[in-house]
Write a structure and sequence with these properties.
heterodimer; A: 228 residues; alpha/beta; Rossmann fold; 8 helices; 12 strands; 21% strand; B: Heat Shock Protein 90; five-stranded mixed sheet
Chain lengths: 228, 377
């Protein structure tokens, strides 16, 4: 079982995070102070640490630095309320593997955790398949059952991203950053994403076939067989 | 600090005036005295020459010396009195002349932040004091309008922030009032999350603007090809235009380059084009035109919409300003798009303006061209 250490002093947030991670079948340990977090991270074995930067007592950056100096190289994902570029650079320089700015969307956090845990393992999947929807990434062919789908470049990338996160929620932020390659999310782009998604859905989920692309209100999208 | 620097203008003015007057009088008296003495002595010599044979009984020289002493005495006693009188008169005059300044100071002090609509009384618009009062009044005018702007901004911002908060609260309270089906709960939470999203974006935008105001955002200086930028924005928003059967046309002169922060400038153009798409009728065309003069490059975005009524033109770039509150809210805007665009263009040393147009509205961005010496990019 994958063990995750959450170092977060805000009780409610720690609770939400731990519930969300447990629902994804991770083994979760919560540390509410910097000292406790540091002690556990250096004494026990974890697969991943979620580290809040602003902690009472010992700051997240200090903990991170000391851990790295002691050659504890567990992947660390920083949670921070500061979104200045300097803060991010500082965090990554001190040895963090990724960062997420509060308030973040849970689907994005989960996706990043998966990405960190996957790291080092090859992800050379050239065929993606969900129910009767099949994607051949090399030949760039998509078919639903025996009906070939004609997708534009962007639609193809979008569907590939959704299928790679098959069964998991994908937020608009993730799509903006990873598919549209826009670092900043703005209202126009959100509208573009929605329109693009509507078109993709018309192509994929037509002809009375069971729906695969679902919208989860207020969160984003998910590809899944049956109801979300 | 020397003593005279701490004294009032009135005292300094009087002291200077008195000192100069005293000096002048002393010089004047001395010259007069010497001239008179010289004259007396000459006369004396002439008389002595003429009446050489008459041996004078009384010594005329002694008589002249006595007269000269009397003159000297009068001068020595009179001079300080005259200077003192003139000094006192000057002091009073200075008070009269400077009284309006004291009055100005007292009046200005009364005009506090909540009484900025008041103005100083201008006694005589043509003299120095009047001009000073006019300048101070203009400053108060500018202060008043920026205070007004700030007040409006705060009121608008709190309205924009509170609206999603009350929606979230309302949904939560309603949800807890009685037991509902899981589907209803999902719906309620989804709608809460939508509001949270709206809040998050609003806070992000406000932070960006206030960081810009505080000069905390460091912009990069890239050589940006405006034609490229225009085509890129058009391509990224084309999908939205297609949905409304609109076309986004780009007409651009070759290689019009400016020095700007690319992503910030792109935000500005994106906001303009997005607005144009939203507010023009289905089937119309949005035209982006890029042109380069010798020193400045321009990018205009023209639509075939209803245009902007004259009464809104002045405030269209204000933060949170919306022409049609209900309509733009429905479209998901907070009234910050043009404010962001304005900030983005001005931060890059350019100007943005709403051009007078026959139909629709035309926004013009003008930026200094990158010099030929600039890096190519």
């Amino acid at each position: 079982m994958v063990r995750v250490l959450i170092v977060e002093d805000e009780r409610k947030l720690a609770q939400v995070l731990s519930t969300a991670l447990q629902a994804e079948h991770y083994d979760v340990v919560v540390a509410a102070t910097g000292e406790d977090g540091f002690y556990r991270a250096s004494a026990e074995r974890f697969d991943l640490v979620l580290l809040d930067l602003m902690l009472p007592g010992r700051s997240g950056l200090e903990i991170l630095k000391t851990l790295r100096q002691r050659h504890v190289d567990t992947p660390v994902l920083i949670l921070t309320a500061r979104d200045g570029v300097e803060d991010r650079v500082l965090g990554l320089d001190r040895g963090a593997d990724d960062y997420l700015v509060k308030p973040f969307a849970l689907p994005e956090l989960l996706a990043r955790i998966r990405a960190l845990l996957r790291r080092g393992r090859p992800s050379d999947v050239f065929r993606l398949k969900v129910a009767d929807l099949e994607m051949d990434l090399v030949a760039r062919r998509v078919a639903r059952g025996d009906r070939a789908l004609d997708l534009t470049g962007r639609e193809f990338e979008l569907l590939e991203y959704l299928l790679r996160h098959h069964g998991h929620l994908v937020s608009r932020e993730m799509l903006a950053r990873d598919v549209w390659k826009e670092p900043r999310r703005a209202t126009p782009l959100d509208n573009v994403i929605d329109v693009q998604m509507a078109r993709l859905r018309r192509k994929v989920d037509s002809d009375g076939a069971p729906r695969l692309i679902h919208t989860v209100r207020g969160v984003g999208f998910v590809v899944r067989e049956g109801e979300p | 600090m020397r003593w005279w620097a701490t004294a009032s203008i009135r005292v300094r003015l009087t002291a200077w005036y008195t000192a100069v007057l005293a000096l002048m009088l002393v010089v004047y008296a001395a010259v007069t005295f010497l001239a008179v003495r010289h004259e007396f002595h000459e006369q004396l010599e002439e008389e002595a020459h003429a009446n050489a044979e008459l041996a004078a009984a009384t010594s005329p020289e002694a008589r002249v010396e006595q007269q000269l002493d009397e003159i000297l005495l009068v001068l020595a006693l009179g001079l300080p009195v005259v200077v003192a009188l003139a000094g006192a008169g000057g002091y009073l005059m200075a008070r009269r002349a400077l009284a309006p300044i004291d009055q100005l100071a007292a009046e200005s002090r009364r005009i506090t932040a909540d009484r900025l609509h008041e103005r100083l009384t201008v006694p005589n618009a043509h003299d120095e004091i009047g001009r000073l009062a006019a300048v101070v009044n203009e400053t108060f005018g500018r202060l008043e309008s920026s205070f007004d702007q700030l007040r409006r901004f705060t009121a608008d911002a709190s309205h924009e922030l509170r609206t999603p908060l009350s929606v979230i609260r309302g949904i939560g309270e309603l949800g807890l009032r009685e037991t509902r089906t899981p589907a209803e709960y999902k719906e309620a939470m989804g709608s809460m999350l939508e509001e949270v999203d709206r809040l998050t974006r609003l806070v992000d935008t406000l932070l960006q603007l206030s960081r810009g105001d505080a000069g905390m955002l460091r912009l990069s200086r890239d050589v940006v090809d405006l034609a490229d930028l225009a085509r890129e924005v058009a391509a990224s928003l084309n999908l939205l235009a297609e949905e409304r059967r609109q076309r986004v046309d780009v007409a651009a002169a070759a290689s019009v380059r400016v020095l700007a922060d690319r992503s910030v400038l792109r935000d500005a153009v994106t906001n303009l084009v997005d607005n144009a798409i939203k507010y023009s009728p289905a089937g119309s065309t949005i035209r982006i035109h890029v042109d380069g003069g010798p020193e400045r490059a321009t990018l205009t975005v023209a639509d075939e919409g209803a245009g902007i009524a004259p009464e809104h033109r002045d405030r269209i770039f204000d933060r949170f300003y919306r022409i049609d509150e209900a309509r733009s809210r429905e479209m998901g805007g907070a009234g910050l798009g043009l404010a962001i665009a304005k900030w983005a263009v001005e931060a890059n040393g350019g100007q943005i303006a709403l051009e007078p147009a026959g139909i629709g509205s035309v926004f013009r961005i003008s930026l200094p061209r990158a010099t030929a010496a600039g890096k190519s990019g």
